[in-house]
Amino acid sequence: MLYLSRQLDFSASHVYRVAEWGEEENLLVFGKCSNIHGHGHDYKLEVVVKGLLDETAGIVVNTTEIKQIAGSFLHKELDGKFLNREHVYFQEHMPTTENLVQYIWESLDHRFPGCELHQIRLHENHYLSAEKERDSLLKLTRKYHFCASHRLHSPNLTLEQNQQLFGKCNNPNGHGHNYYLDVTVEGEPDPVTGMVLNLAELDQIVESIVLEKLDHKNLNLDTEEFKDVNPTSEVVAMVIYGMLKPHLPQLCRIGLWETDKNYFEYWGPEGQHV
């Protein structure tokens, strides 16, 4: 099976408000997104299809077809629109990133000849995205940032072995990174708010459980979580998952960007990467 991905862009505006709620409750749940005049985004949509190779042509499907089908749908229905006011579906459903992904999936499914829709991933901005696959719960990813230093040194190895394995990262004085943390939760969008999880609640949990403990810290020396473990990024991702899971039952996976080139992902002890 081969997988092909095509990225498309569109712009739209919207507002998050429940008409039956007062101003205070809308502001509490949706924050600035409850501004009655709306706000907007430049969305990035990734469409992933899968299929078998056509050995004659050497392709699964012409990616131009993916662009034409998905692009025509976006242009007609979403691009340049105020979704709450101009789209029938989003007059009844909150135009959250989660509901947008659900609607786009249902609209594009079974429309690509010769291949099958595998995944839809929608980036609202650099810090928020949602994704949908067939027969799976919808996933929402929020990105966070923290700065920390660490020394890579295993007590199970000799000094020479540590130096050989970790190189300059074994510097006794440590070194640092600007970490970016992807926290992914999964579930069904709430029928009223359109959210898998209230973002304000998610932000508060991640801030208090993870960021306050790790940000601007030496992981080896300043934290209990890494006191007795080697804080490689693999371990950091696993530890953060363990920190969050008791407070975040919807947690699906942790992604950790150590640098732009180094990314680590953990799905939990029984996790599975699709």
From TrEMBL:
The keyword Hydrolase does not apply. Pathway: Purine metabolism; 7-cyano-7-deazaguanine biosynthesis. Its EC number is 4.1.2.50. Gene3D superfamilies: 6-pyruvoyl tetrahydropterin synthase/QueD (3.30.479.10). It holds the Pfam family PTPS. It catalyses: 7,8-dihydroneopterin 3'-triphosphate + H2O = 6-carboxy-5,6,7,8-tetrahydropterin + triphosphate + acetaldehyde + 2 H(+). InterPro entries: 6-PTP_synth/QueD (IPR007115), 6-PTP_synth/QueD_sf (IPR038418), PTPS_Cys_AS (IPR022470). It comes from the Bacteria. Its cofactor is Zn(2+). Keywords: Lyase, Metal-binding, Zinc. The keyword Zinc applies. Belongs to the PTPS family. QueD subfamily. This is 6-carboxy-5,6,7,8-tetrahydropterin synthase.
